[in-house]
Amino acid sequence: MTQDSAENRTVAVLVPMPSETPYTYALPEGMDAAPGAIVAVPLGPREVIGVVWDQGGGSVDPRKLRAVSRVFDCPPLSADMRRFIDWVAAWTLSPPGLVARMALRAPAALDPEPPVEGLRLTERRPDRMTAARERVLEMAGDGMAWTRSGLAHAAGVSLGVVDGLRSQEVFETVYLPAPPVVPVPDSRFGRQDLTAEQSAAADNLFGAVTTGGYSVTLLDGVTGSGKTEVYFEAVAAALEAGRQVLILLPEIALTQAFLERFHDRFGARPAEWHSDMAPRAREKVWRQVAEGRVRVVAGARSALFLPFRELGLIIVDEEHDPAYKQEDRVFYNARDMAVVRGHIGGFPVVLASATPSVESRVNADQGRYRHVTLPVRFADAALPDLKAVDMRRHPPARGGFLSPVLLTAMERTLEAGEQSLLFLNRRGYAPLTLCRVCGHRFQCPDCSSWLVEHRFRGQIMCHHCGYHEPKPEACPECGTLDHLVACGPGIERIAEEAASHFPDARIIVLSSDLMGGVKRLRLELEAIAEGEADIVVGTQLVAKGHNFPGMTLVGVVDADIGLTNGDPRAAERTFQLLSQVTGRAGRTGKKSLGLIQTYQPDHPVMRAIVSGDREAFYAREIAEREKAGLPPFGRLAGIIVSAPTAGEAMGHARGLRSAAPPAPGILLLGPAEAPLALIRGRHRVRLLVHGDRRADLQGFIRALLKAGPKERGQIRVQVDIDPQSF
Ligand code: ADP
Ligand code: ZN
């Protein structure tokens, strides 16, 4: 070997750790690892998995380096995927290693799945023919490989007959790839006849897919207009073009009905991807996506980091949903990163919603996104008749939360044998427990939040960290017995109130803390869809994407909840949530009603919902954002400092602030308490960075973090680009 080639045998490997740059390793003789290859490398006392990011130059002496220990027999991460990882890291100001880790979430999938033994006919004939043997030969005569039991079963003979033929070498053993996790979808399987509007929308999406190249389309249509049906046509086009497809859904674990619908259209389910899957199932999906054997994935936001080979379309359903934002380690919005992935891969992205985010609406209005609208519900299924119930004029009975207007409507619905939904975005029995004698309030010892009474469990608990204790009988402050009162409603309390009015009604309470987890939730959702409940009381979990054919009344118990927290996004969120939850009613054409209990019936959000005038809402909201220079007309980022004490966090944040380089067009606000000031025993303060649309916030923050005090001891600094609340 020449000196030159010896020096070139190094690789830069990105390891899934909070490392800023790849590490250099030597490649042992005879080992090859091109960029993207997945390898095992020694790191300190351990061996870790990493991705070859670059082939090394000649600047380091390979004899001084540790060597790559193994190259996995696994398809490499594509160049696009590696660019995507680098891009996400730079945008979110996260170490590339941590972003790469999201793409390597299935370590056991790195080795190929063991092949399955199969049998194939040879030229030999059996010594003696029997009727059973004849049937086997006839079955296997197609020249295909069969599994032993599959062949016996198909020919209707015992395994012994097959084994007998095998021992005479009538069959040879071949190795078949492990079975696919899902069959290949058929783009023509259950094609629907579309309405004229749907066809026009579908043609538009179809055009985007078949002309190829990057584009973003906002598919904007009221609930029930057939957005899913329409984007399925784009999926079909991408499949016909030989590309893989990713469909992102905010709550895939709970929208199993979606998989059925996909099956009806394509004759096979998509592969699922979310955190509630068993590790083994995840590994299979990861591997087969990398091999290109899985053609369509329906997944939660983390599916964006699957190692697709030939991704050609991403659909982001319910694109406005806050569940797309991850606020843990790498803070990212999967909707926005999906657009980036489309840009890097040069393929179309479709954002679907009945209530698009203000950001996407502005992008569509300004021509950066294509805008495809579906203004009417399918088959004239009417949107529910929506009314605001002015709670000042129709107060509930003492100690209750349901107005007489809503109760009367529930009674009529029950009599008609139809379903009602009572929506309240508050889990538990009561959001606050206090002592009637001394006024003591129960607060979480680790968070800045009140403990919520859960009567079914007999506990008071914290909704941020899960801290809980049995519901006390005496006040810890003044010692008085039996004087604790529940303040305000949670869904358990609403269910209790409904039961007191309608003792014979079948009531289901639905929220994410239901005992029994996702499995139980799925069963309950199915039961509701099958009409096994008269009254459903639920949190936002029931608002999302479900189809409840018997539901004709939706009562929003407290429409004002989300408007009072002072967040500039509050109006948008409330508008989206109320539209979505009232959209659960009347999906099958029955006359339906939505009653919205509010103390502010004149609030622009209530007016927009009741009048159905979405355009007025967007126009107003967009104008206000523009005036205040808020997203998407300006840019925001949070720098969150957390520490065991408020003093340490504040001190560090002030240090960062004073290190800020001068930057025209960028304003640094704070430090102030973060939206959640205390969580899991850590105090959090936030600096808010506000810039104009073209401001380089990332560059500014990078410079500030470099110049300011470093993380030390228990002090942590986390950057949140495009924060949810501002
Ligand atoms: P969206 O996604 O806009 O809420 P969906 O795609 O879920 O709307 O459609 C609402 C309902 O109407 C679904 O039950 C769907 O099966 C039905 N539907 C929509 N379009 C058609 C069509 N062209 N043919 C048959 N059924 C349709
Ligand atoms: Zn807590």
From TrEMBL:
Pfam families: DEAD, PriA_3primeBD, PriA_C, Zn_ribbon_PriA. InterPro entries: DEAD/DEAH_box_helicase_dom, Helicase_ATP-bd, Helicase_C-like, P-loop_NTPase, PriA, PriA_3primeBD, PriA_3primeBD_sf, PriA_C. Keywords: ATP-binding, DNA replication, DNA-binding, Helicase, Hydrolase, Isomerase, Metal-binding, Nucleotide-binding, Primosome, Zinc. One of its GO terms (cellular component) is primosome complex. Zn(2+) 1 binds at C435, C438, C475, C478. Residues 208-374 form the Helicase ATP-binding domain. It is an enzyme of class 5 (isomerase). GO terms for biological process: DNA recombination; DNA replication initiation; DNA replication, synthesis of primer; double-strand break repair. CDD domains: DEXHc_priA (cd17929), SF2_C_priA (cd18804). It comes from the Bacteria. GO terms for molecular function: 3'-5' DNA helicase activity; ATP binding; ATP hydrolysis activity; DNA binding; zinc ion binding. NCBIfam families: priA, PRK05580.2-2, PRK05580.2-3. Belongs to the helicase family. PriA subfamily. Initiates the restart of stalled replication forks, which reloads the replicative helicase on sites other than the origin of replication. Recognizes and binds to abandoned replication forks and remodels them to uncover a helicase loading site. Promotes assembly of the primosome at these replication forks. Component of the replication restart primosome. This is Replication restart protein PriA. It comes from Zhengella mangrovi. The gene is priA.
